[in-house]
């Protein structure tokens, strides 16, 4: 029943070890946590830039008068 459950041909993107089904696509919870932190860092970095734009000057599109 557990045949092929241990190794599915995938490797942990963090350390390169064979992935465990329980932590797929990672080999352990530690590696999954590392990737999660990376992901969160990227998410928070994106909207921060947009907020700066809104707080500074207004977008030109609004004052351009497209009509
Ligand atoms: Zn790993």
Describe this structure in words.
- The chain is mainly alpha-helical.
- It has a single domain, classed as Erythroid Transcription Factor GATA-1, Chain A (2-Layer Sandwich), CATH 3.30.50.
- 49% of the residues lie in helices and 0% in strands.
- The N terminus is likely disordered.
- The structure holds zinc ion (ZN).
- Zinc ion binds next to loops.
Please describe the structure with a list of short key phrases separated by commas or semicolons.
67 residues; mainly alpha; Erythroid Transcription Factor GATA-1, Chain A; 2 helices; binds zinc ion
The number of helical runs is 2
Distance between the termini: 67 Å
Number of domain modules: 1
- CATH class, named Alpha Beta
What layout of secondary structure does this protein have?
Blueprint: H1 29-56, H2 60-64
This protein binds zinc ion (ZN).
Zinc ion (ZN) binds at residues 12, 14-15, 17, 26-28, 31.
Compact overview of the structure:
Helices cover 49% and strands 0% of the residues.
